[in-house]
Each structure stands twice: as structure tokens, then as C-alpha cells.
């Protein structure tokens, strides 16, 4: 299984790119949002990847972050949502917007993606709402690690390579609370109310995903 490809962007098309890594060219399908964020042809690019294998087809799908990749995997687990439909949702909303819409039960936002009707959108929200906090935590911790380990502007790209996907590093209680707070603020909650909810939820312990889920219940409208 190819978990990540790092190399030179050879060319891009409407729904995919070709990345040359160690002398091999890989066609990788991406969402519109991901394609727009990639450098110009000839630039260095690194994408997390997921391989979709069917009886008559084998394709690589690429993602800028682990959170985006995980959302694609979860979206395709919903009946009626294929790999391209999942890309359409991520291309329209982005991983953070997808987290926000599903966590808050916003069916209308999900159905704005091309090819996603109201029944499929409702199914996505109903089946994945409980899983959204864990992905929100993954995105928050990934952003924190990226800031902590960001290379200097003058750094030279590493040698093109293909490496296995790695799980996110575990976080201590303080980092779990920080990730939960970051995720809630990204959902649109005020820093004060989000911090209060996280602090209250932290009394029972748990990882960032657990804290987010508990805090969302505390922040939900009463009555």
C-alpha cells in the first residue's frame, strides 16, 4: 500500500496530477481544492494517498493532510458515496468545512457538493456525525505539528521518495485539550465558551476526539 508520495509535479489535469518519484510517474486523483493548493508544474509536492481497487479499476487518490485522507475514507464508507463523490464533498467544503458540517448536522452544506442529493447528504451526516470529533482532533494536531516542524524558507526539498503512512503522534492531556479547543474554535465557537466547555469535559479525561464530542454536547442549544 502506498501511503504517501513525495516528488516532482510533472503535470496536472482537471481531476488529477502526475507525480514523478524515484523515476516512476504516479497518476494521483485530487479534489479541486487540493489541486488549487499544489505548486506549479516542476515544483516539489507531497501527498498522502489512498489506493482504491475495484474489479476493473485501480486508482490513487491524493490528499494534502491526514485529516482530508481520513474524511475521504469515511465518506466512501457511506452507501452511495463513491471515491469521486467524496472528492466532490472535500473539494467543496475542504476537510475543516466537512468536519464542521457533519459535526453540526448541516445537511444543507453537504448537499452543495456536485452530485450529492439531499438523501445522500442526510445519510452522510447521520452515519458520520459521531466520527467527526476524532477527525477534527486529527486535523488540529496535524496543524500543530506542522507549525512546530515547519522548515525554514530557504530549506531545500528532500529527495523524492515514497514512504509508508504514519499514524499521528499521541498527545498528552494538555495537548488533547489544546487540540479540542482549536477544533471547536474552527467550528465557529467563541474562544471563551469553547475553552469553558473543554475544561468542563476534561474532568472525565479522554483524548481530543472524546473531549470534542463531550464539549459539543455541552455547547449544544438547550431545550
Structure summary, number of beta strands: 6
Which shape, going by the Cα principal axes? globular
CATH class category label of the largest domain? Mainly Alpha
Element-level helix/strand string: EEEHEEHHHHHEHHH
- The CATH architecture classification of the largest domain is Orthogonal Bundle
Number of helices: 9
Query: Helix share of residues?
Result: 40-55%
The rounded distance between the terminal residues' Cα atoms is 48 Å
User: Major beta sheet, specifics?
Assistant: 5 strands, mixed, barrel
Give the mean pLDDT.
82
What's the CATH topology label of the largest domain?
DNA polymerase, domain 1
Oligomer status? single chain
Domain Helix-hairpin-helix DNA-binding motif class: 73-92, 108-127
Region (Domain III): 153-223
Organism: Pontivivens nitratireducens
Protein name: Holliday junction branch migration complex subunit RuvA
Amino acid at each position: 500500500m502506498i501511503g504517501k508520495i513525495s516528488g516532482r509535479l510533472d503535470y496536472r489535469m482537471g481531476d488529477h496530477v502526475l507525480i514523478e518519484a524515484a523515476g516512476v510517474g504516479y497518476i494521483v486523483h485530487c479534489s479541486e481544492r487540493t489541486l488549487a493548493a499544489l505548486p506549479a508544474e516542476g515544483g516539489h509536492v507531497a501527498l498522502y494517498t489512498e489506493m482504491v481497487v475495484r474489479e476493473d479499476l485501480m486508482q490513487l487518490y491524493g490528499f494534502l493532510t491526514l485529516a482530508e485522507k481520513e474524511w475521504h475514507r469515511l465518506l466512501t464508507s457511506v452507501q452511495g458515496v463513491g471515491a469521486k463523490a467524496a472528492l466532490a464533498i472535500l473539494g467543496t467544503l475542504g476537510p475543516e468545512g466537512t468536519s464542521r458540517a457533519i459535526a453540526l448536522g448541516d445537511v444543507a452544506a453537504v448537499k452543495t457538493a456536485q452530485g450529492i442529493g439531499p438523501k445522500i447528504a442526510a445519510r452522510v451526516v447521520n452515519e458520520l456525525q459521531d466520527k467527526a470529533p476524532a477527525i477534527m482532533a486529527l486535523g488540529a494536531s496535524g496543524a500543530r505539528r506542522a507549525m512546530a516542524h515547519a522548515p525554514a524558507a530557504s530549506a531545500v526539498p528532500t529527495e523524492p521518495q515514497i514512504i509508508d503512512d504514519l499514524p499521528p503522534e499521541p498527545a498528552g492531556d494538555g495537548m488533547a485539550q489544546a487540540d479540542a479547543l482549536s477544533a471547536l474554535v474552527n467550528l465557529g465557537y467563541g474562544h471563551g465558551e469553547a475553552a469553558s466547555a473543554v475544561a468542563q469535559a476534561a474532568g472525565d479525561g479522554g483524548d481530543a476526539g472524546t473531549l470534542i464530542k463531550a464539549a459539543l454536547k455541552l455547547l449544544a442549544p438547550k431545550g
